Amino acid sequence: MRFDRNARGEWLVDPNELARKLGITAQLLKTETALRLVQTHVVMGRGPDEGLSRVRVRYRESIWQGVFDCNGFLINECRLSPDSLPEDPVH
């Protein structure tokens, strides 16, 4: 899985890959995104985590989190429950 930026600097990810991570179809991801039921949060690493990005995607009660390196490659991922969201640095 890759995490890239478009010409406007917006973050992009393949919707088919993201849908698989969330356990839904790409079409459902598109529909639910249009309904604003998919929330994305991106944190850029600082200090010892510089060059890393943590991406958290929440869909209803499902949360997927991935850490990407400076080249946009996924290096770590996990599923989270809404009541266990950490606010720790990017690792």
Set down the secondary structure blueprint:
Blueprint: E1 3-5, E2 11-13, H1 15-22, H2 26-34, E3 38-44, E4 53-59, E5 62-68, E6 74-80
Antiparallel strand pairs: 1-2, 3-4, 4-5, 5-6
Q: Features of this protein?
A:
two-stranded antiparallel ribbon, 91 residues, 19% helix, alpha+beta, four-stranded antiparallel beta sheet, globular
Q: Short description, anyone?
A:
The protein has 91 residues and is an alpha+beta fold. It contains 2 helices and 6 strands.
How would you describe what is shown here?
This protein has a 4-stranded antiparallel beta sheet with strand order 3-4-5-6. Strands 1-2 form a two-stranded antiparallel ribbon. The chain has 2 helices and 6 strands, in the order ββααββββ. By secondary structure, it is an alpha+beta fold. Helix content is 19%, strand content 37%. It has helices spanning 15-22, 26-34; strands at 3-5, 11-13, 38-44, 53-59, 62-68, 74-80. The chain has one domain (3-80).
Shape: globular
Quaternary organisation of the protein chains: single chain
* Mean pLDDT level: 86
Q: Which range does the strand content fall in? A: 35-45%
Amino- and carboxy-terminal Cα gap: 18 Å
Q: Summarize the helix and strand pattern as letters.
A: EEHHEEEE
Going by helix content, strand content and strand pairing, the class is alpha+beta
Number of helices: 2
| Share of helical residues | 10-25%
Low-confidence stretches: none
Our count of domains comes out at 1
- Describe the sheet with the most strands: 4 strands, antiparallel
Record the strand order, biggest sheet. Answer: 3-4-5-6
What is the CA-based Rg, rounded? 13 Å
Q: How many β strands by DSSP?
A: 6
